[in-house]
Amino acid sequence: MKKLAFLFFLTIGILISLPNQSLAAENLQKKIDSLEGGAVLRLENKTYEGNITINKPVEIIGQKGTVIKGDRTGNVISVRSPNVKIRNLTVMNSSLDRNSPEEYAAIKVYTNHNLIDGVTIKHSFHGIYLSQAHHNTIKNCHITGLGKGQIANQGNGLHIYYANDNVLKNNVVQATRDGMFFDYANGNSIINNKISDTRYGLHYMYSDLNSFEDNTFTFNTGGAAIMNSNDIDLKNNKFIFNYGYKSFGLLLLQAQNTAIEDNTFFLNQRGLYLDQATNSSIKGNKIMKNQIGIELWASSNEQVFSLNDIEENIIPVATLGGEGRNSWSDKGKGNYWGNSFPVLDLNQDGIGDEPVAYQSSLYELIEDQELTYLFLKSPATQIYEKLNQFFHQDKRMFEDPHPLVKKEEMNFGWFGWLVAGMILFVILIKGRQWICITFGRNGRKI
Amino acid sequence: MHYVWKEWKENLKGKGLWLSFAIIVLVSISLLVRSSSLSIDKGFYVLLINLFDAFVYFIPILCLFLGAFALFQEKEQKTLIMLLTRRDSFPSFLFKKSIAVQSVLLGPMILWFFLYVIPLKFFYQIEWSAYGFYLLSVICLVLVFTQIGIFVGSISRTRMQIVGFTIAIWFYFFFLHDFILLSFLPDVSYENVKLFSSLYFLNPLQAARMFLESSLGVYSFEHMSKLLQSFMWMKPGLFLLGNVILLVLLSFVCGAAFHRKEGSE
Fold it and tell me: Model ipTM?
């Protein structure tokens, strides 16, 4: 009897101590439902069970250890009221189901004028999903996906669908399918986000009049892919190390009137990749150390390249599929092409006296055989180019009528001065005799 | 061990090892200084890739010369005859000599790259696995080209022959191998892509680069076309391993089979 009683109380004890998921979810949902419009709900430093729906304009503030954990059946937080503010918490475990009628997210916003600030998201299909939601601000959020190898099994970090005039600021997105995906979304501002290890850092479909500033795209299969979209502004963004097979820093595909200014394209497989793009203005960018600086397909026309710093790329420009109608200078100012294109500037006006042209024969191989990209880093490509130049089997890739000339300044840096100082020191202490023997009096000892 | 010690003492006296070592040290420090000015994320990976790209220019030719002259010296100083008249056969001598030369070249280099971590820590957050992959790819290059160098030293009669062979081999791997493959590139199809890829990865420079870039995660093979999938029919690490084993063994066997005992100035 005693044993039975002990077992009974033990079972009751265990049942009581176990967290009741639906009850916990209900508790948080009830708390939210019981709030007045405009109220502030401060969550404790603990894990709350989701899923929840916010139907009132309230502010939810978490702490460092506040977690809202979904039950993996849907969206963890659904925002269905305007003017909701969510701050400082972690959201996880949305449904990962790909066969459901809707795509789920950690936070799905259906309304306007909301703020999501300082939210960490993990183990979810999409991170934050704006569905026909306008004038929202998403900032300081950290979204981590399932990993680079899980492209098909997961969604995007920030998914913006039929949503206009939103601000996405200071977010970090890692290892999701696409970092930010825009579908029919216009007039959004995307500022100072860091996106890495995704398929496309930024993926743009049918979205116009958006602006990007100070974002960094690293280690993605493609930095940013702007497709079927017009009037996009890209300023001061960094596209770095998007380096995989046929990767790119920025792809413009069927994009019109794109302004690309003061961006950095560094160490990408292809810095800029333009296909069926028209009327882009590409000014003041640094396009450096890419395997192909600019890959320009003949279907792209009316691009203007001016004041860009295009240097140390293995192939500066590859024009494929024929020559399009593009300008390599604007208002008498072309681009700077680095030391591999020596330019004379006798009148010292900063503009070369002769045009700069680049001939290449690799374009045919690149057009016809995708494996050519595997050879771009090989020194053999230089021999291939020279040999084909000799036999006149190359084609002009570009001609810049007004190449820029930089005033070279001798800048050794501290390391250069250190090495020079050490050499001088060694010579003074040890090497005087040796130098005299070598160079003095025809090699005779003095 | 006796051979290693002898090799070490000989190299300490010579200039070759010190010159090579100085080049490696200077290049790695200067690249670190240059990369440190890049205020970008993941600069550590940029540095590793830049280091490898720079060493591709130095390591093959240095290792070829050092390996070749290390063996030729035995002929020149008549120590080879002395060693062989005792009880060693030439393959046995070549094996011990190879181990000695490899360890004398690899030892200081590995030591340097461990010391190199100290300044690295001031600039970057070090990922040890990435650094290990980098080190492994450089070690593979040293192994292969030193062994080929030993082969050159083994078959050469004069120093001029060594210079000629070494430059020819360096030129082949650096330029000619890929150039030949580039010429055949338009004819590559699904049917022959595996053969083409085997030939591509026969170049240790390409095999090591592909291994390094894929291991660091900077070169992804996701969303490959069918042709590229067939091209990458093994993992890059296996291609590199196969390449190292094949070239080291081939160099050793050829070095043993076609060796010349006599050598002159």
Answer: 0.86
